[in-house]
Amino acid sequence: MKKIAVFTSGGDSPGMNACIRAVVRAACHYNIEVVGIRRGYKGMINDDFVPMNAKSVSYILHKGGTILGSARSDEFRTAAGRKKAYTNLKKHGIEGIVAIGGDGTFTGAHVFMQEYPDIAIVGTPGTIDNDLFGTDFTIGYDTAINTAMEAIDKIKDTADSHDRLFFVEVMGRDVGFIATRAGIAAGAKAILIPESKTNIDELVNLLLDNAAKKKMSNIVVVAEGDDEGGAMDIAKKVKAKTNIFDIRVTILGHMQRGGSPSCMDRVLASRVGVAAVTALKEGKKGIMLGQTHRSISETPFEKAIKHNQKMSAELEVLAKILAY
Ligand code: F6P
């Protein structure tokens, strides 16, 4: 393999830069030419390619976001868009690609490779949501749960001081991985996630039990994709059933995607970045490089993306046991 490209796509996540750096430096190590594609599939279609070398990725390891930019491309969902992308890749002599992203990124890569099998694509899991199968954790998840946990800790201080009930909404699209770990770590009274049906009556009873113990201040963590709605909806539903709580709602939002990556995210990103280039060099394609039980693992794109990553039942039980 003589020339490869790297891009980041979908929602950015802390550690993407560490992964770009690892890909570029591994390519240099193997004497493979490397270019960056700006703004994911958009840049592939618009011919936005930049040459990269070991020096161009200096001093980015600790930075949040992605130096290559990211986007969600509707045009790449069309056959015409993918044809434009292919033409540009061929023009630049690209033989292999490392795609850093999540579900949408790998879905696009899978479709593209079926149409244009002469371009090898491998992926690394870059998303705060942790919703990919074939890796214990995704790049950015650790930083995001720490960001959420620290924010909830702060909310807890004011909740306690004012005897208030807070509903805190965290990201995660249609999964509850961020909510579960951040909620456990911050001692939430309840954690509402899409994976388990939310019962408003049960939640109200739990809160009333606490009120009977003279505990009015509580934190309920709500995953944005919960089946009963976001934090605002759930707060309204609780208020409609009992008016004894002084309720506030906080939506953490995009702050969960930013910030300097944690040590775990930097190391994970570095490992899978190097593994991705090694895989391309060995002629592999159509796989995501992840980390499973401390070792590098390979998972076909179709398997990584189909919601095969399951919530741990043990963590759900644990959260209930520990809430008082
Ligand atoms: O996939 C990452 C994520 O941050 C999700 O948690 C969230 O639902 C979504 O992206 C938000 O996307 P956007 O930044 O396009 O609004």
UniProtKB/TrEMBL annotation:
Residues engaged in binding Mg(2+): D103
Record bears the keyword Kinase: yes
Cofactor: Mg(2+)
GO cellular component annotations of the record: 6-phosphofructokinase complex
Enzyme Commission identifier(s): 2.7.1.11
Entry's Gene Ontology molecular function annotations: 6-phosphofructokinase activity; AMP binding; ATP binding; fructose-6-phosphate binding; identical protein binding; metal ion binding; monosaccharide binding
Phosphofructokinase domain sequence ranges: 3-280
Residue numbers binding ADP: R21, A22, V23, V24, R25, K156, K213, K215, M216, S217
Residues reported in the UniProt entry to bind ATP: G11, R72, S73, G102, D103, G104, T105
Pfam families referenced in this protein's UniProt entry, alphabetically: PFK
Binding site for substrate: T127, I128, D129, R164, M171, G172, R173, E224, R248, H254, M255, Q256, R257
Activity regulation, short description: Allosterically activated by ADP and other diphosphonucleosides, and allosterically inhibited by phosphoenolpyruvate.
UniProt entry keywords in alphabetical sequence: Allosteric enzyme, ATP-binding, Cytoplasm, Glycolysis, Kinase, Magnesium, Metal-binding, Nucleotide-binding, Transferase
Active site: D129 (proton acceptor)
PROSITE patterns hit by this protein: PHOSPHOFRUCTOKINASE
Classification via Gene3D superfamilies: 3.40.50.450, Phosphofructokinase domain (3.40.50.460)
Catalytic reaction list: beta-D-fructose 6-phosphate + ATP = beta-D-fructose 1,6-bisphosphate + ADP + H(+)
Subcellular location: Cytoplasm
Any GO BP annotation: canonical glycolysis
HAMAP family from the UniProt entry: Phosphofructokinase_I_B1 (MF_00339)
UniProt family annotation: Belongs to the phosphofructokinase type A (PFKA) family. ATP-dependent PFK group I subfamily. Prokaryotic clade 'B1' sub-subfamily.
Role noted for this protein: Catalyzes the phosphorylation of D-fructose 6-phosphate to fructose 1,6-bisphosphate by ATP, the first committing step of glycolysis.
Subunit structure comment from the entry: Homotetramer.
Protein name: ATP-dependent 6-phosphofructokinase
Species of provenance: Aureispira anguillae
